[in-house]
Amino acid sequence: MNKQITIRWATQDDSEDLIHLNDLFNGVRMELNEVKESLRTSSELVALAFLDHRAVGFACAQYFKSFCYPDLYAEITEMYVSEHARRRGIASLLLGFIEEELREKGVKNVKLLTGLKNETALKTYAANGYIIRDDAVMKKKLSNHS
């Protein structure tokens, strides 16, 4: 039996599904009001994937203009598909959905970050035309000074 896959933009009504999926993705449980507020006020693009009308994955992207570059700059910042829904092309559909919106906004290049040990994600991204580069990714946690 073929299952129906649908991709659309997330709305505030999807907040509970996004909370659940994000918890599965990175173990961070967000509050309902925080997610609704983010979806209402942020310029972040959040695509949501459904398998037979059940939310099974999401992808997030941001784009902006910097004086350093002539074109809009974009990053796909998060991507997750529930384990039971994998290997159906959902990640590729999410990528294509977000890329089309970015293209319409005038973005010419997209960057994304994933772990070098995440072989499944690397294969998916490569199959969708992404090229691995040897960039250093550094992270620093800023503490609040009183």
How would the global form be characterised? globular
Query: Approximately how much beta-strand content do the residues carry?
Result: 15-25%
Query: Helical region count?
Result: 4
User: What profile does the largest beta sheet have?
Assistant: 5 strands, mixed
Kindly state the percentage of residues in helix.
25-40%
Helix-strand pattern, N to C? EHHEEEHEH
CATH topology: Aminopeptidase
For the terminal residues, how far apart are their CA atoms?
Answer: 60 Å
Compute the average pLDDT. 92
GO molecular function, one term: acyltransferase activity, transferring groups other than amino-acyl groups
Keywords: Acyltransferase, Transferase
Pfam families: Acetyltransf_1
Protein name: GNAT family N-acetyltransferase
Textual characterization of the structure:
The protein has helices spanning 15-26, 32-41, 90-105, 119-127, and strands at 5-9, 45-51, 54-64, 73-81, 109-112. With 146 residues, the protein is of the alpha+beta class. It has one domain: Aminopeptidase, CATH 3.40.630. It has a five-stranded mixed β-sheet with strand order 1-2-3-4-5, sandwiched between helices. Strand 3 (54-64) and strand 4 (73-81) form a beta hairpin. The model has no long low-confidence stretch (mean pLDDT 92). Residues 5-143 form the N-acetyltransferase domain.
